[in-house]
Design goal:
about 375 residues; elongated; alpha+beta; 6-stranded mixed sheet; 2 domains; Alpha-Beta Plaits
Length: about 375
């Protein structure tokens, strides 16, 4: 089924400019972050102006989610479109909230990550309404808090809403992303015995014991990178992020703490990854009775993948091919997205978003034409999938 939509380009660009001009820096990442209240309320106003019912929810103090539901007749499949409202810090940016347009690019923090995507979602809903098309399944326009940190917005959203499929509109240069890695944060502690530096008979150095663990961790890191990679998302990896131990230079350290991250490929699980690390600890403890260590996962985000033949993937592929005049590349990415949370709820999810550059850097921009292309793709997909 092919539909001809008239995209209101002026509407999409004006909404995008306004979104970028609203400061929505994540307060857990930046000391001067303001949160999502203003941008959430503006998004809600946009939805109400389209006569789309809105649920505006404060999921934590000053952290907001917005959900607009374009109701279908009840006879089709439902589709959830998603973007996040928060951005990273604007430190070092010359024009973080300008929304300036130059050479077909719109500049400012969040322009590509991912306010261009949100503008495209709103533009897609408007195009469907302007065309007088009645959907059979519901179309949910969602914008969530805190994706750049702990994803409290998406964690809350999936307790309140579901759908037959979802499109997360993270920037992909209009390629179709079907996989990404996950991550596990671990706390590893080695225990020693505090003693004056002169009393070697009594002291047990926790820092030295951690050094033994790090040496084995280095071997595991190299081995992970040699494993057969996931076809789209690449190999698993790990790194030692933060290390702390000891109190005084003339005192044996009684405890050393390593905070580390294990990046997981699709198909890997937390119990498998934890068992690999525990094997190292058990080996070192067997070799030396003074080696005492504990291992604890502190935060877990699953990897994500979806098969090429999934109906939502096929619908997005068809719409993208139609809009761009050529088949889009299917790919994976190494970073994590909220798509994994949706997928964990049994919602078939795919990722596609606009072209640009400068994510998390001093100059960020999005290509305006790619935002308009994405608007077409989302509208086309919604009608074909929901009907």
């Amino acid at each position: 089924m092919t539909n001809t939509f008239k995209i209101d380009a002026d509407y999409v660009i004006n909404v995008l400019q306004k979104l970028v001009q609203i400061n929505s820096t994540n307060p857990t990442l930046s000391s001067d972050g303001v949160g999502e209240k203003e941008i959430a309320h503006y998004t809600a106003e946009c939805l109400r102006a389209l006569n789309i019912p809105v649920d505006l929810t404060e999921v934590a103090p000053n952290r907001w989610n917005v959900v607009g539901t374009l109701r279908g007749s009840g006879n089709g499949r439902s589709l959830l479109l998603n973007a996040h409202l928060d951005t990273v810090s604007v430190t070092g940016m010359a024009e973080p909230f300008s929304g300036a347009i130059r050479d077909g690019k719109l500049f400012g923090r969040g322009a590509q990550d991912m306010k261009g995507s949100l503008a495209a979602q709103l533009g897609a809903a408007k195009a469907i309404l302007d065309a007088g098309i009645k959907l059979e399944g519901d179309l949910l326009i969602t914008a969530v808090a805190d994706e750049e940190d702990k994803s409290i917005g998406m964690d809350h959203l999936v307790t309140q809403y579901s759908a037959d499929a979802a499109i997360v509109t993270e920037p992909t240069d209009l390629k179709i992303c079907r996989a990404h890695r996950g991550f596990i944060w671990y706390d590893v502690k080695t225990k020693g015995r505090a003693a004056h530096g002169s009393r070697y008979q009594e002291g047990i150095d926790a820092n030295m014991r951690m050094g033994r663990f790090l040496a084995e961790l280095d071997k595991l890191e190299k081995e992970l990178l040699q494993r057969p990679p996931h076809a789209l998302a690449g190999p698993p990896s790990l790194h030692a992020s933060k290390l702390s131990g000891g109190t005084e230079i003339s005192v044996y350290s009684s405890e050393c703490l390593l905070e580390m991250e294990r990046r997981t490929a699709p198909g890997e699980t937390e119990p498998q990854c934890t068992a690999e690390l525990q094997t190292i600890i058990d080996k070192l403890a067997k070799a030396d009775e003074t080696f005492n260590a504990t291992l604890k996962p502190s935060f877990i985000r699953d990897p994500f993948s979806i098969e090429e033949n999934a109906p939502i993937v096929q619908a997005v592929h068809q719409a993208t091919t139609q809009q761009l005049g050529q088949s889009p590349e299917h790919m994976g990415v190494s970073f994590w997205t909220d798509a994994a949370i949706l997928a964990a709820q049994g919602i078939d999810t795919v990722i596609i978003g606009p072209t640009g550059a400068g994510l998390h850097s001093a100059e960020e921009w999005v290509e305006i034409q790619s935002v308009l292309d994405l608007t077409h793709i989302l509208a086309e997909t919604a009608v074909n999938f929901c009907n």
